[in-house]
Amino acid sequence: MTKKRKLITFDWAIKRLLRSKANFGILEGFLTELLKEDITILDVLESESNKDYKLDKFNRVDLKVRNSKQEIIIIEIQYDREYDYLQRIFYGVSKTAMEHLGENESYSGITKVISINILYFDLGSGTDYIYKGTTRFVGLHNNDLLELNAKQKQLFKKDSVEALYPEYYLIKINRFNDIAKDTLDEWIYFLKNEEIKPDFTAKGLKEAEEKFSIMKLPEDEQKAYEAYQDDLHYQASMFESSFGDGYYEGEVIGIEKASRNIALNLAKEGATVEIIAKVTGLSELDVKQILSELDQART
């Protein structure tokens, strides 16, 4: 039996390799298998999350690209549990759509956004490992789908109402049973196990196997990768120690601590009490107390 080659993780690849046009074929392969259409990437769009430095958000990696249909695709990798993750991806998609609408453009210029979320925790209550979310309008009386008319199809260059709105893909890696039934499953197997079997044929995987081999990395890159992996393990350990896994009390403490940190950062930026309370969910009284502590610390 051919020994399977250990590969670098997909999040590391996104940070180091997949932003290069020379490696777009790998990412195009994954997206083609997932979206069930041929995907061509034109370029990588910069965002705060794309910055590559140690203080970056440790628990996820974001990549934002534009395809040949001028759609924007966001890829996020999430390791740690977030109970409000569904709301966060909705916020991210909405923000992205608005960022790419020109000031003088009509609403028809809103860009379609596709949100792909690779999750290493069990989000929600479901038995599948891949979920797709779209927007459809269904008649309450006749149960028919609302469709675009001819003029709208010409204006939007889309064939359906659903095609105008964001798409969401949730890939729950830990739910996958390691049995690859099709080429998309072959990609999921790689995302879970960091290995590619010799008989896999999914688009982009053979190129990924060649580019993602740890042994083919330059020595400095190998050391950087090992340090990155160690940092992930450390952060995961700190997360479990701070929050506890499955204990409500620990989760509440962690959420409160996170809210206080957000409040402090907003206060340092000059945000008002009302805005801080709205963003964090804290009461205005709690916010005022935090601001008072901040003033004391400054003096």
List the helices and strands and how they pair.
Elements: H1 10-16, H2 24-35, E1 41-45, E2 60-67, E3 72-78, H3 85-99, E4 113-119, E5 130-133, H4 150-156, E6 167-172, H5 183-193, H6 205-211, H7 219-243, H8 248-268, H9 273-280, H10 284-298
Parallel strand pairs: 3-4, 4-6
Antiparallel strand pairs: 1-2, 2-3, 5-6
Helix pairs in contact: 2-6, 8-9, 8-10, 9-10
> Biggest sheet: strands side by side, in what order?
1-2-3-4-6-5
Rounded to the nearest angstrom, the radius of gyration is 22 Å
Distance between the termini: 69 Å
- The structure class reads alpha/beta
Low-confidence stretches: 48-61, 244-251
Proportion of beta-strand residues = 5-15%
Order of helices and strands: HHEEEHEEHEHHHHHH
Separate helix tally: 10
Mean pLDDT: 81
- For this structure, the quaternary state is single chain
Provide the number of structural domains: 2
